[in-house]
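Sanity check

After download, print the first record. It should look like this:
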Amino acid sequence: MRIQFFSHYFPPEVNAPASRTSEHCVRWRRAGHEVKVITCQPNCPTGVVFTGYSNRLIPEKDFVDGIRVIRVWSYLAANAGMIRRTLNYMTYMVFAILTGLFGRKPDVIVATSPQFFCGWAGVIVGLIRRVPVVLEIRDVWPASIAAVGAMRSQPLLRFLVTLEQLMYRAATHIVTVGEGYRRHIVGRMGGRHQEKVSVITNGVDLSRYRPSAPSEEFLKKHDLAGKFVCSYIGTIGMAHGLDVVLRAAEILKAKGRNDICFCLIGEGARRARLETMSKHLGVSEWVHFLGLLPKTDVPRALASSNVLLVHLQACDLFETVIPSKIFEIMAMQRPIIMGVAGEAYEIVEEAHAGMPMKPEREADLVRIVELLADNPEIASELSEAGRQYVAVEFNRDVLARDYLELLQRVAGIDSGEPQSSQSLDTSRHVESELPSIDES
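Expected structure tokens:
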């Protein structure tokens, strides 16, 4: 089978969409299928092209782990500023469409959103080339940007919602990552076509993320030796509400808890502001900003942390979000402080892998950090339970296989004819096994 995949992000970028896409595509290629990915030059989240790459009008073609990767030109923008980011998304869409119209005709197209315009690129190419399209929805855009106040124009928002609805209807089938998202998508389609939407959750590569000892080199390099380290790893953006870490650090400072510190590892629209606030509040000793790490260093950062914070703003919409980082944290046998309500917390609770805090409530964060720092046996119990759970429920190998079987059915590979979405099995595509570090 020939699979053409549209993704705004792809390694060496280290966010959740890049990891999910690459880990699925690698497994499909190993299963004997031809996979082509149409993506941008790596530049997220800074908007600066990574060393060794060039943002040229002529597409750059390469093979990565047997995957044909075509990198198209796009207007580069950091992960901040609505107008410039929209230009980034739209220019990718235009050049991705132009690239996708040529070459051997695929059997099936997959387009992953966010970003929203990436989804449209796949839908348009599919309509023109008469190829079935699987739309992968990992973020309920534009609702998510409205929720964090990034878009206040109601006419524009209504227009984008209309485009969202049209995109859903034009797709042959839709894959999403959780039941909350599935309900949102079905609702956008007027409650009809429930059979058109399947859930393929995020998962984890158990061979990459496995228990290991803390790295003394890592701890010394970042002045963390001898500390109880609570880390947040991922995008430092508007939706993540990480001001709570600074407020918690103020409380720890007042209590004289010099043995506890926070690490914020990543980049995003709020990093510079938070770093400035940290200095102003005098809590730099309690809050360390480590910047963006290469994907290969993420397991070492996880292993060197005593506990990991997963957090989003207090918002009803975010109760549908399942941050992919929770699976990697559990696979590394580290406990979670869960500052996300809804479906994600239910997973962590079922796994007995962490402790809940009310989003944006610093008193909760301090209470849990102190409890785990003072009672290592509790942290150990949570760590072991998490690894066992993801090994059964969220194995990337199994999820990629289930996804592949769905693509084959959409493409009509078994019968020789494309099947309508009504004939597809839409049950939760997770069997008993197991952003990447990022929000979704």
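If your output differs, re-run the checksum step. Summary of this record's structure: The two ends are 28 Å apart (CA to CA).
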